[in-house]
Amino acid sequence: MSGQHLSQLVKMVNQISANMHGATDEQAADKVAAHLQKFWARPMKEQILAYADDGGEDLTPISRQAVEKLREVRAAG
Fold first, then answer.
1. Are 49 and 70 in contact (CB under 8 A)?
2. Residue of 21, 5, 6, 8 whose CA lies nearest to 62
3. Quick check: 35 and 1 in contact, CB under 8 A?
4. Which domain of life does the protein's organism represent (predicted)?
5. Is 15 helix (H, G, I), strand (E, B) or coil?
6. CA nearest 36: which of 22, 54, 21, 49?
7. What is the pTM of this model?
8. Where are the domains of the chain?
9. What is the pLDDT of residues 22-49, one digit of tens each?
10. Under 8 Å CB-to-CB from 62, ≥6 apart: which residues?
């Protein structure tokens, strides 16, 4: 995976998180995680999860929380 591709994924999840106006952090993270689960391809999800595992330093707090919720959904499913 190229660094540029990963940067795009991080940018996308942060933008999705930023567009959750009026939601609490918990609600926003739930909605972002649901969006990732529903609309992102499996390789995209695996890449963002791996990025979070490696520290995920460029993820916003809501994005980081959403990625962890995505991990929980995938583990339960």
1. yes
2. 21
3. no
4. Bacteria
5. helix
6. 49
7. 0.93
8. 3-76
9. 999 999 999 999 999 999 999 999 999 9
10. 17, 20, 25, 28, 29, 32
